Amino acid sequence: MSDIAAPLLAWFDHHGRHDLPWQHAGPGNARDAYRVWLSEIMLQQTQVATVIPYFQRFVETLPTLRDLAAADEDTVLALWSGLGYYRRARFLQRAAQECVARHGGELPRDFDALVALPGIGRSTAGAILAQAYGLRFPILDGNVKRVLTRYHGIHGHPGQGAVEKQLWQHADTHTPSQRVADYTQAIMDLGATVCVRSRPQCDACPLATDCVARRDGLTAQLPSPKPRKTIPERDTVMLVLRDARGKVLLERRGPQGVWSGLWSLPEAGDTDAAWRIAQQHAVIDDAQALTPFVHVFSHYRLRIEPLLFDGATAHPTIADNPHLRWCGAGELASLGLPAPVRSLLQSL
């Protein structure tokens, strides 16, 4: 057993998280591969507390891999709505469909077959094989990177190729042959609850004695931050066309770009263009400028100026366009909507 596995497992037995909803749902109370996989995808760039209600709602509606593969895309995106990074949800469903077509409706136990599926990288494949099947494979998510970076005193941003290669070597060395599922959960838990990004609880850490960052006073400096880049800003006008019954016009976005495939509000580059687009879809009399707000993506900031056209009368040609629909408030829950659009509509 590696030099960190024994103390880490002992810590996990007393302080780790043992009741997460994806941990014990298979035959004989074992971990179910579908649920492990779903949780791993949801937890990418998202905290456990945020993920839990989404996960529970998702598996209540789509309890098996075959259910996910057969589901309507709008259902999948509606269940995902609010988690962001919607590409993850599309890859999830595409991978499920490939599992049905090629692997008998199950996630394969072969590493190469797993990483060949859409949206499954090396760490996610390792987590599925280790936690669901008990096979010895290392993982390297953000929490694990932070633990290993500090423990070994590794400088340089963990996302850089050379640094990441070094971290993978350490991850593999430390992964034990026994209790692999518990070990992978333990090192993730340690990073999430003790070896946190700011103000780590070193006094409660089972690895503190040999941790280079703690010894050298580098816990605030490691992991090294990602080199900063200026985040560009963009502006858009969102058209809120609402008819006398309270229904709002939604437009399905194309296959490319942000929020691809989701139902959203029509957009324009400026107010004049917004009026022209609104008049193409409905008879309108007046518009009210609503309070602008900013939505932050990973690579840019979007400043949104909502423009409300109340009492609009729909042109009949809308019925001929499958990418446009008038929706009442009761229909919104069943559609995949971007989080800021859903919040905007709920505020009206």
UniProtKB/TrEMBL annotation:
It is an enzyme of class 3 (hydrolase). The keyword Nuclease does not apply. It comes from the Bacteria. Keywords: 4Fe-4S, DNA damage, DNA repair, Glycosidase, Hydrolase, Iron, Iron-sulfur, Metal-binding. Its EC number is 3.2.2.31. Pfam families: HHH, HhH-GPD, NUDIX_4. Gene3D superfamilies: Helix-hairpin-Helix base-excision DNA repair enzymes (C-terminal), Hypothetical protein, domain 2, Nucleoside Triphosphate Pyrophosphohydrolase. One of its GO terms (biological process) is mismatch repair. GO terms for molecular function: 4 iron, 4 sulfur cluster binding; 8-oxo-7,8-dihydroguanine DNA N-glycosylase activity; adenine/guanine mispair binding; metal ion binding; oxidized purine DNA binding; purine-specific mismatch base pair DNA N-glycosylase activity. PROSITE patterns: ENDONUCLEASE_III_2. Adenine glycosylase active on G-A mispairs. MutY also corrects error-prone DNA synthesis past GO lesions which are due to the oxidatively damaged form of guanine: 7,8-dihydro-8-oxoguanine (8-oxo-dGTP). PANTHER family: ADENINE DNA GLYCOSYLASE. Belongs to the Nth/MutY family. This is Adenine DNA glycosylase. The lineage of its organism: Bacteria, Pseudomonadati, Pseudomonadota, Gammaproteobacteria, Lysobacterales.
